[in-house]
């Protein structure tokens, strides 16, 4: 009987050992699975953060594009009107004789002033040139002269006015520059 008891105890011990080994394998597998789940979670979080950053960058970029479109919406119109402004200025430089011609010239001057005011309201400015230091972004040098009255690299004469729309040059000033 004792042998039977011993066999039963041995069998119980063996089955308990098998259960412990099985549980140990499960416990050993769980940390690996747990670590994999943590890594997956971290990867998903990183992807989410990248997507959010991409979306924010896209939103900022489209906002800047919209602002630029609004800011310079009148650029093509201004480019078309500048030659007309030049012609007005040339017409106003002609000397006139007689009262009716002077009245006509005064009327033209009023239209010119109104035209210029409308462009200024839209953000169009003349680029200062004569007496200014030559700036290749604002001025187009078509001649170089030697003039003792001016320092080197100073605009001596403006041959054609330049214009900018807000901070963008529409047409550079054509100038003579002192050497």
Automatic annotation (TrEMBL):
Cellular compartment(s): Cytoplasm
Segments for region (Disordered): 1-37
CDD domains (UniProt xref): GrpE (cd00446)
Predominant place of localization: cytoplasm
A single cellular component GO annotation: cytoplasm
PROSITE patterns (alphabetical): GRPE
Keywords: Chaperone, Cytoplasm, Stress response
Gene Ontology annotations of biological process type: protein folding
Compositionally biased tracts (Acidic residues): 10-33
Domain of life: Bacteria
InterPro entries: GrpE (IPR000740), GrpE_CC (IPR013805), GrpE_head (IPR009012)
Membrane-spanning parts: none
Assembly description: Homodimer.
Entry function: Participates actively in the response to hyperosmotic and heat shock by preventing the aggregation of stress-denatured proteins, in association with DnaK and GrpE. It is the nucleotide exchange factor for DnaK and may function as a thermosensor. Unfolded proteins bind initially to DnaJ; upon interaction with the DnaJ-bound protein, DnaK hydrolyzes its bound ATP, resulting in the formation of a stable complex. GrpE releases ADP from DnaK; ATP binding to DnaK triggers the release of the substrate protein, thus completing the reaction cycle.
Family classification: Belongs to the GrpE family.
Family annotation (NCBIfam families): PRK14140.1 (NF010738)
Protein name: Protein GrpE
